[in-house]
Amino acid sequence: MAVEIELFGNISPHVQRLSSLSLERSMTVSEVMDLLGIDAQEVGLIVIDGVQHEIEDPVPLDCRLCFFPYLSGG
Amino acid sequence: MKLLRVDMDQLLVKWEPVPALYERLGGRALIARLLLEEVPATCDALGPHNKLIIAPGLLGGWSVSAAGRLSVGGKSPLTGGVKEANAGGTAGDALGRLDIKAVVGEGQPARNSWHILYIHEDTAELLPAGDVQGLGTYATSDRLQERFGPDSSVISIGQAGEGLMCGAGVCVTGEGNQRSNHAARGGLGAVMGSKGLKAIVIDKPQAKPLPLADEQLFRSAARTYAQKLINDPKLGRSGSQHLYGTASIVAAVNEIGSLPTRNFSAGSFEASPQLRGTVLREVTLARGGEAGTRCMHGCVIACRNVYADEEGKAIVGTLQYETISLVGSNLGLDNLDAVARLNYMCNDFGLDTIETGAALGVAVEAGLAKFGDLDSLLALLEQVGQGTALGRVIGNGVVTAGRVLGVRRVPACLGQAMPGYDPRSLKGNGVTYATSPQGADHTAGNAFGARNEVNPLGVQGQKELSLKLQIIAAMLDSTGLCLFARPPIIADPQLMVDMLNGIYGWGWTKEEFDRFNRDVLRTELEFNRRAGITAADYRIPEYMREEPLPPHNVVFDVPDADLDAVFETL
């Protein structure tokens, strides 16, 4: 079981765009961001398995977690 | 300010002072009021009693960043109701600087009588269209700028508009050699064609700027607004809109399961990574195209691009999200080169890429082409330019295509194709598509930008959200503001009030401005009511309530009662 993580756009360019993370304990999105070195100021949208989440939501042990920059509709 | 009336029956132009009723209106607000006052709501949209209205917003001509959009309006041949579509480019600012409130095309000439309206400072004349008749919008703009000067603004239609096809839009030139800013939606290109107007040319204004009612108030508000645009994390130089343009949202819309895919049969597309904004930017820069350019003078967002082929030759600019979704994922196309080629053809024929992409999706479902097969799609689209019977079916939009080809999965509301957000997994947009007096139109109130307020998959709060967004959209479209530039104004409406009071000296309060914006919707709803549009027409397609959309496997389940109640608190 692992969390697939993808970063989009230009957020935290030093962080790998696509990675996999095995969580040993339940973590929040915020804790995962700290772990990876993602700057919360740059994140406008968090999506877990296709559903929008908030920064303090728990991350399932087996999921796809995506971080998007601030976006607005075209 | 003045109105320019163009009688296409008698081939006469007439300047007149702006009637008091229209004095404080611009763009979409003016179009709605003028339609209600002057156009019989039940008239044939392509007949002599409809009017083509071309109007800058209230900020047009005053050098406010991202605020020179040009509104085009009339009764829509697609929806049968009110329609306003707007485009960037230079024409909105040019008309504003010339103190022209609107150009109103009236009547109808003899069949196959084509003209160009030429506006130079305070003169206007109708000229024979001559050798530009029958040309696409690129060649039309080229020839007219060769003739009238490279700084002139050209508003034109292509073969689709000449052929009165209801998927036709109106093309507007921009800075430099930009060709393809489109007031695309609602079939207004066909309305322009029905007037026998191939193009409008506006010479670059030489007149001195008009006096401001309160220069200090205006300058202070305009500066603050522009600085806030620059500081916005989405819009500044390191923001997604500037770097990747509207394509910045491809990945996010795909991830939330709302990306139209294979005629709206899925909400995510396996090849969407090849269509992302980051790819668009990388390929564009690697090939010598352009990224981060602007369509209007002084825009600090600069979201535009020019996409080039492998030899570095420009294919199309700007490649936008809506086109990438409707002409890309919706047709199963997995690369931007293919999307760009179809985009170029649509632009040249003067077709709305949303309406046409949706119509092509239906045609594929009917077996006339294959998803992901560019050649078969190009062959179909080519027929629109040729004016064949099948081409006219595609060119008349998704509802016509569905009826003729016997396809039930027709993604449209009020006769107009849905843009690039499947409403089953972005339900706020479904409410807007269904209830907007403009038909299915994301620019009428896009809930994608409001994800943090209401759960996109839930039912609760969608009608309230849609109303709020529709009021904001009415404000944007009436002032000429680009929708990307909305954040500072939404955060502080007083900025807009101060800019308008600084220009016109109206002494508006925020409350009066809010009432002005709401009145736009009230006026539009009244025109549609008079046109015979009822609650039964403001609906989402039945199949979207029954056919679950992967990957979330959700249907559109906002009750009809909620749709009927959207404007209760307007």
Low-confidence stretches of chain B: none
Q: Kindly state the mean pLDDT of chain A as a whole number?
A: 93
**Rg of chain B, nearest Å:** 22 Å
Q: Strand percentage of chain A, roughly?
A: 35-45%
Count of beta strands of chain A: 7
By oligomeric state, this entry counts as: heterodimer
Tell me the distance between the termini of chain B. Answer: 30 Å
The largest β sheet of chain B comes out as: 6 strands, mixed
Number of E strands of chain B: 17
Query: Roughly how much helix do the residues of chain B carry, as a percent range?
Result: 25-40%
- Helical residue percent of chain A? 10-25%
Question: In order across it, which strands form the biggest sheet of chain A?
Answer: 2-1-7-4-5
Report the biggest beta sheet of chain A as strand number plus sense, adding barrel if it closes. 5 strands, mixed
Summarize the structure.
The complex is a heterodimer of chains A (74) and B (570). Chain A is mainly beta and 74 residues long. Chain A is 11% helix and 35% strand.
